[in-house]
Each structure stands twice: as C-alpha cells, then as structure tokens.
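# step 3/5: fold
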Amino acid sequence: MKLRVLLVTSVLLALASAASGRQAADTSRRATERITKEVRHELVMLPYFSVFDNLTYKVDGYNVTLMGQVTRPTLKSDAENVVKRIEGVEHIDNQIEVLPVSPNDDRIRRELYRSIYGYPALQKYSLGVQQPIRIIVRNGNVTLEGVVDNETDKNIANIRARSVPGTFSVTNNLQVVKS
C-alpha cells in the first residue's frame, strides 16, 4: 500500500512539475513576443530615425541586442534609452555602429535617395513615414537594407544605386516580402 501511495505521489509531482514548466515557458514566450513588439515600435518612433539609418534588434528572453548603422551618435544613445524603459528588459547590448562623418557620403546619400525613391516604379515606397528601403553609405560603399514587394523592385533599386556617381560598391540586402 505504501509503495502504491509513493508511486501515485511521484506521478502527481512529475505531472505538476511538467505543467509548471510548460506554464513558465509559455509566460516567457509571451513576454519575449511583447518585448519584441515594443522594441520595434519604440525604434521606429525615434524622432531622428531616417531612411539613412538601419536599426535591427534581437530579443532573447529579457535581453535585447541592438544592431545596425546610424548617421547620428545621438540616435545610438536614444535607441538604447527608449529600449531601457520597456518593462521586462533586463539587459541591453548596444552594438549600433555610428557611421563616419563625410560630406562625400552625405552627397551620395542624397543622390541615392533621389535615384531610388524618385524612380517611377519605386515611388510607391516613398509613401508613409518610414520608407522601407534603407540606404546605408560608409566611405562610398552602399548597402541597401529593408523590404520590397517583389524581385523586380529589388533589382531596380540595385541598378539605380549602382548608377549614382561616387559609389564604390553596392550590397543589396533587400528582402522580398509579399504585402
């Protein structure tokens, strides 16, 4: 009889432990999803976040890693400060790169913007507050980040970027995402 009671108790404890583990994992998953959503919202709402900046992030539980490139040093610190205030965030690893100051890069940025967003097939991407094609220029080297609707738009953006005088190279990291 004692053996049976001990066996039943062990089984009940194992079931309770498994249910508790599932509950904790579900709570952690929901917290991670909430933090991810809030981090994205806070970053796109930064006042000086422009088409020439690229902010990405990774959420791992209650830890957030900020990555990307920005043209203003204050944007790097602003991004960290707004993420710090999100409930549940315990640690921030700020790996955002501040791009070097360069009048030539600024000229290339302006010309790239006109070349890409001024082209009739790509003008639809200029609508809205945050343009989906990010233009990153570092020492004359161009990287296109973000999303477009189809492969044709990705290729057009690449061709338009390569046509701007003064660009040494173009890396096209645009992702095709169906609306």
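# step 4/5: annotate
The domain at 103-176 is CATH 3.30.1340 (Histidine-containing Protein; Chain: A;).
# step 5/5: archive (pending)
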